[in-house]
Amino acid sequence: MRALIAAAAGLAAALALVLTITAIGAPPGETSPEPLLTTVPKHP
């Protein structure tokens, strides 16, 4: 029973964190038009 209560408390805390971040919103700014590099460039 304690495990169920602990799991419920953890889930409630995680949900509260997600809702808080959603309410605050994304920071202002612009995204870069250049794509991100996903591999290391090869040097000759």
UniProtKB/TrEMBL annotation:
Task: Name the domain of life this protein comes from.
Answer: Bacteria
Q: What is this protein called?
A: SPW_0924 family protein
